[in-house]
């Protein structure tokens, strides 16, 4: 599998495969799996309704007619030869044109079959194949023709993911040539594991996946290769988990009369059953020296911040510090304000007990408490003086709770005694980022609590966060009302006018509103986030921009209301000022980009309008919708799109779903799995070749148990070197770094 590809297919073919498909070894080629199989009977199964203009296709079709003629180029140029063919595959009929290939009429006569590849186009309502390439399928008894290029197909023909430069028949030829000289590898998966789980040998799997005798023979081959990938991934995840446990965590037992108990006593509301249950789990884990390594997930508004704060206070009671890491400065500042508001006098350590009023006579008393701690905000845009003071508070231990962005990860930020790291919105951080603070030198490593407000399907949790224990908050606090969501066709003026009327009605009732756009404007970057693409793929106008929309609303349907704009290019102080004034009720309508997607909590905001909603992902829309409905007043969300068809149908499905976990399943259904398992989220290879997080829950679960058992006896896989190679093949060297640490 590690042999250079040139040894199997020759230097010329190996060079083409390396250049266009990044294949270097025999293993790279043999792990390039067919995306489907065809037999000659499959010619009748092609349905034009499944195809779109612009699709790059590889198909087997029959030649129905063929003619060649010579023509002069326009303007009196030299002659060219044009071969025109009509070909058919099932209900699909295509016109195919070859230039200066006169032998095509002879070598691909009427009635012959061939592979055709190219880009689907339409001219006068007839399908055409642009820039076509073709390879005739040999029947085995064809007469020899020096111009004939043909290929004899196996009974079940693999159709490979290809490019315009490397066609599926060229990959088939390379695979055949390779398998002819391929020695079956020594199987990396122990025989006992293979027998227990009904897995065929790896060598047989590689042969049957590419050249199966029947479709039935391909199924156990695919299961074996899928299982290998699941095992490699789970070994990496469980290895990271073991690596995190090699150093003890600082014990932080709960006290009966400390800061945490005082906070519980002053809570103005009753904790939900889920908050109490998860809180008890965290309290027990923090009390021990086995590092807490947990994912806390819950729907928007389920109260994760309160759960995290109670855990942080338990750590502060033990004389240690806690860090809350947020992905953006807006969210970090919002968290700092929220924590200070929840703690009140318990978060004002070191502040003066009383201040003089404006007239200089009347003192304004500030509540303080002898058990209080200090909350410090640390971001990259702090002024030099503020940053210096914040760093001193962190390093001296005066700050019990530190809230910050990735600036906190920088090595020059020192802690007196870090006991707990809380990572909010984990999907915005790579695994390596979250491990930076935990891997610093020292006798202990801090506990880790990872939070996400985007509920995760179980298969994704096992695949992406398999190194973490999982806690779920599955109920909302009392008094929360469902958010009334509507998909609005923006191309219908009366419908859109009614949306702006609803915004005015809410503001007139004393409430506030958000308007979200996918772009900032003024020819700057597309957005604070990577711009979404939409479902339909046609030529479209540029996405709406917050700066431009704000001007139009202020001069039109929302004239007279207090509008402000918020986006990621604003200076940090200005962003914070806008959010403060919006939270205080001094702004009626906040026109924003996705910078408000997570964490922003303004209970008085009761309506949100998302423009060009089809450009946002499912989880993004659910997060944006969660910015309203945070008080006890009924709230509304309007998802506006100019597009009809699939885009509007998708928005309507989103509008009908209120449960975040059902929304997560829809997200997984609609998105490319490579996005779900992206490097930003998982910290490892962007796509899995075989494993589907939607279809392979059983394989993932089985592999997880096998991985745990193997690593319990052999933590570095020293006695299973080929399994170590499997891990590296699945997750890469960085993902397999645990093998060198334990």
Automatic annotation (TrEMBL):
<feature type="region of interest" description="Disordered">
    <location>
        <begin position="518"/>
        <end position="540"/>
    </location>
</feature>
<keyword id="KW-0067">ATP-binding</keyword>
<dbReference type="InterPro" id="IPR001650">
    <property type="entry name" value="Helicase_C-like"/>
</dbReference>
<dbReference type="GO" id="GO:0006281">
    <property type="term" value="P:DNA repair"/>
</dbReference>
<dbReference type="GO" id="GO:0003677">
    <property type="term" value="F:DNA binding"/>
</dbReference>
<dbReference type="InterPro" id="IPR033454">
    <property type="entry name" value="RecG_wedge"/>
</dbReference>
<keyword id="KW-0227">DNA damage</keyword>
<dbReference type="GO" id="GO:0003678">
    <property type="term" value="F:DNA helicase activity"/>
</dbReference>
<keyword id="KW-0234">DNA repair</keyword>
<feature type="domain" description="Helicase C-terminal">
    <location>
        <begin position="495"/>
        <end position="674"/>
    </location>
</feature>
<dbReference type="InterPro" id="IPR047112">
    <property type="entry name" value="RecG/Mfd"/>
</dbReference>
<dbReference type="GO" id="GO:0005524">
    <property type="term" value="F:ATP binding"/>
</dbReference>
<dbReference type="Pfam" id="PF17191">
    <property type="entry name" value="RecG_wedge"/>
</dbReference>
<keyword id="KW-0238">DNA-binding</keyword>
<keyword id="KW-0378">Hydrolase</keyword>
<dbReference type="InterPro" id="IPR011545">
    <property type="entry name" value="DEAD/DEAH_box_helicase_dom"/>
</dbReference>
<feature type="region of interest" description="Disordered">
    <location>
        <begin position="135"/>
        <end position="156"/>
    </location>
</feature>
<dbReference type="InterPro" id="IPR014001">
    <property type="entry name" value="Helicase_ATP-bd"/>
</dbReference>
<dbReference type="InterPro" id="IPR027417">
    <property type="entry name" value="P-loop_NTPase"/>
</dbReference>
<protein>
    <submittedName>
        <fullName>ATP-dependent DNA helicase RecG</fullName>
        <ecNumber>3.6.4.12</ecNumber>
    </submittedName>
</protein>
<dbReference type="InterPro" id="IPR012340">
    <property type="entry name" value="NA-bd_OB-fold"/>
</dbReference>
<dbReference type="GO" id="GO:0016787">
    <property type="term" value="F:hydrolase activity"/>
</dbReference>
<feature type="domain" description="Helicase ATP-binding">
    <location>
        <begin position="285"/>
        <end position="473"/>
    </location>
</feature>
<dbReference type="Pfam" id="PF00271">
    <property type="entry name" value="Helicase_C"/>
</dbReference>
<keyword id="KW-0347">Helicase</keyword>
<dbReference type="Pfam" id="PF00270">
    <property type="entry name" value="DEAD"/>
</dbReference>
<keyword id="KW-0547">Nucleotide-binding</keyword>
């Amino acid at each position: 599998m590690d042999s250079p590809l040139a040894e199997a297919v020759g230097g010329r073919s190996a060079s083409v495969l390396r250049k266009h498909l990044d294949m270097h070894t025999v293993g790279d080629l043999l792990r390039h799996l067919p995306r489907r199989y065809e037999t000659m009977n499959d010619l009748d199964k092609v349905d034009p309704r499944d195809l779109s203009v612009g699709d790059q296709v590889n198909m087997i079709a029959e030649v129905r007619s063929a003619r060649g003629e010579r023509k002069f180029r326009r303007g009196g140029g030299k002659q060219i030869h044009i071969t025109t063919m009509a070909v058919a595959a099932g209900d699909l009929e295509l016109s195919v044109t070859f230039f200066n290939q006169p032998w095509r009429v002879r070598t691909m006569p009427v009635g012959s079959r061939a592979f055709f590849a190219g880009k689907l186009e339409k001219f006068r309502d007839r399908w055409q194949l642009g820039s076509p390439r073709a390879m005739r399928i040999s029947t085995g008894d064809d007469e020899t023709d020096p111009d004939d290029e043909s290929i004899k197909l196996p009974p079940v023909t693999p159709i490979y993911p290809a490019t315009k430069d490397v066609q599926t028949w060229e990959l088939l030829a390379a695979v055949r040539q390779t398998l002819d000289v391929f020695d079956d590898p020594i199987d990396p998966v122990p025989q006992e594991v293979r027998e227990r789980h009904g897995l065929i040998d790896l060598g047989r799997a590689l042969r049957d996946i590419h050249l199966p005798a029947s479709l039935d023979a391909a199924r156990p081959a695919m299961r074996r290769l899928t299982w290998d990938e699941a095992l490699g991934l789970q070994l990496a995840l469980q290895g990271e988990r073991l690596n995190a446990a090699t150093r003890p965590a600082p014990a932080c037992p709960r006290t009966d009369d400390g800061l945490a108990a005082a906070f519980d006593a002053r809570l103005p509301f009753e904790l939900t059953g889920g908050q109490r249950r998860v809180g008890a789990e965290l309290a027990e884990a923090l009390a021990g020296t086995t590092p807490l390594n947990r994912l806390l997930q819950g729907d928007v508004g389920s109260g994760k911040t309160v759960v995290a704060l109670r855990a942080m206070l338990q750590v502060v009671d033990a004389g240690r510090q806690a860090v809350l890491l947020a992905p953006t400065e807006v969210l970090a500042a919002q968290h700092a304000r929220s924590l200070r508001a929840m703690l009140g006098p318990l978060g004002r350590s070191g502040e003066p007990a009383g201040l003089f009023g404006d007239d200089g006579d009347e003192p304004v008393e500030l509540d303080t408490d002898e058990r209080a701690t200090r909350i410090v905000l640390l971001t990259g845009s702090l002024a030099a003086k503020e940053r210096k003071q914040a760093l001193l508070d962190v390093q001296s231990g005066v700050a019990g709770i530190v809230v910050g962005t990735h600036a906190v990860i920088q090595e020059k930020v020192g802690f007196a005694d870090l006991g707990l790291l809380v990572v909010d919105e984990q999907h915005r951080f790579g695994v390596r980022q979250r491990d930076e603070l935990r891997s610093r030198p020292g006798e202990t490593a801090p506990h880790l609590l990872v939070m996400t407000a985007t509920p995760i399907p179980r298969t994704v949790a096992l695949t992406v966060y398999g190194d973490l224990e999982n806690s779920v908050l599955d109920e909302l606090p009392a008094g929360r009302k469902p958010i009334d969501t509507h998909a609005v066709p923006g191309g219908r003026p009366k419908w859109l006018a009614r949306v702006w009327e609803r915004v005015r009605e809410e503001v007139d009732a004393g409430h506030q509103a958000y308007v979200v756009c996918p772009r900032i404007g003024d020819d700057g970057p597309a957005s604070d986030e990577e711009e979404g693409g939409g479902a339909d793929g046609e030529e479209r106008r540029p996405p709406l921009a917050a700066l431009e929309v704000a001007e139009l609303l202020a001069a039109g349907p929302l004239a007279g209301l207090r509008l402000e704009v918020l986006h990621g290019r604003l200076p940090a102080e200005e962003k914070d000022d806008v959010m403060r004034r919006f939270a205080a009720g001094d702004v009626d309508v906040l026109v924003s980009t996705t910078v408000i997607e997570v964490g922003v909590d303004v209970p008085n905001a009761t309506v949100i309008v998302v423009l060009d909603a089809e450009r946002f992902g499912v989880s993004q829309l659910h997060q944006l919708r969660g910015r309203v409905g945070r008080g006890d007043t009924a709230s509304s969300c309007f998802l506006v799109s100019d597009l009809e068809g699939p885009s509007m149908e998708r928005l309507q499905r989103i509008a009908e779903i209120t449960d975040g976990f059902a929304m997560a399943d829809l997200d997984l259904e609609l998105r490319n799995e490579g996005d779900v398992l992206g490097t930003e989220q998982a910290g490892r290879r962007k796509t899995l070749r075989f494993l589907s997080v939607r279809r392979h829950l059983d394989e993932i679960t089985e592999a997880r148990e096998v991985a745990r058992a193997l690593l319990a006896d052999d933590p570095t896989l020293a006695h299973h070197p080929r399994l170590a190679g499997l891990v590296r093949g699945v997750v890469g060297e960085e993902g397999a770094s645990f093998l060198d640490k334990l």
